[in-house]
Amino acid sequence: MVYWVFGYGSLIFKPPPHAVEQKSGYVKGVVRRFAQSSIDHRGTPEAPGRVVTVIDAREWHHLEGKDIPEGTLLPEDYVWGVAYRIDPDHETEVKAYMEHREKNGYTCHFVPVYSTDTNSAEEIRVVDSILQAEIWIGKLDNPAFIGYEPKIDLAKIISERSGPSGLNKDYLYKLAESVRQLYPHVRDDYLFQLEAAVKALEPRI
Q1: Could you identify which of 4, 48, 58, 112 might form a hypothetical disulfide with 133, taking C-beta atoms 3.0 to 4.6 angstroms apart as the criterion?
Q2: Could you tell me if residue 163 is inside a domain?
Q3: Confidence of residue 130 (pLDDT cuts 50, 70, 90)
């Protein structure tokens, strides 16, 4: 079995070890949101930061107070990221690395990863149709899940917090810039508006 890992957050700009191939693609029916508390990377137990998770789109829209008909996908209900194929000689090592890396509230799931054929514009599977990529998700019932926060409150938290892996805002900025460069055709209003809101809080020199 070939081992693929799908990155939608910091894995986009900091790939897992022993990745021998990478493919851009998206996961359907989910949204990427800064709704996960971080006490071990971009915050501390005393002052948790915020990092991303992907959330079932209908569940998130419900948290926002939106009533979306079942089976309906909004334009934002796709998360673009990178699928990494791991060297099979290091599969056990990388799985242990991912389990340690995502220990604060994330659980392992498997998803199909899609893209669009450049010639026909038809949707295709990035990873072989028999396989699915491993993805680490902070589900709504995990203890680190924060849920919906007003954007201005979220921006203030991100602008102020830091942890062992660095400033919380640097995590946001790197993610936004990576998405912008890798997928210039993708409209991610949530991510780019949050980036702008945090930058607006930067001290003016």
Answers
A1: 4
A2: yes
A3: low
**205 lies in a domain?**
no
pTM of the model: 0.90
What's the longest Cα–Cα distance across the chain?
A: 54
CB atoms within 10 A of CB 23: 15
Q: Which amino acid is at 68?
A: I
Catalytic entry in 76, 102, 123, 134? 102
Residue 172: predicted pLDDT: 98
The CA R_g of the chain, rounded to the nearest whole Å, is 17
The count of domains in the chain is 1
> What are the structure tokens assigned to 106, written together?
């994330």
Strand positions, DSSP E, 29-164: 30-38, 49-56, 78-86, 107-111, 114-116, 123-125, 133-137, 162-163
* pLDDT tens digits, 171-199: 999 999 999 999 998 889 999 999 999 99
102 is catalytic: yes
Tell me if 171 is assigned to some domain: yes
Residue 203 covered by a domain: no
Query: For residue 129, what pLDDT is reported?
Result: 63
CATH code where residue 77 lies: 3.10.490.10
C-alpha 95, offset from chain centre: 18
Instruction: Provide the pLDDT confidence category of residue 16 given band limits of 50, 70 and 90.
Output: very high
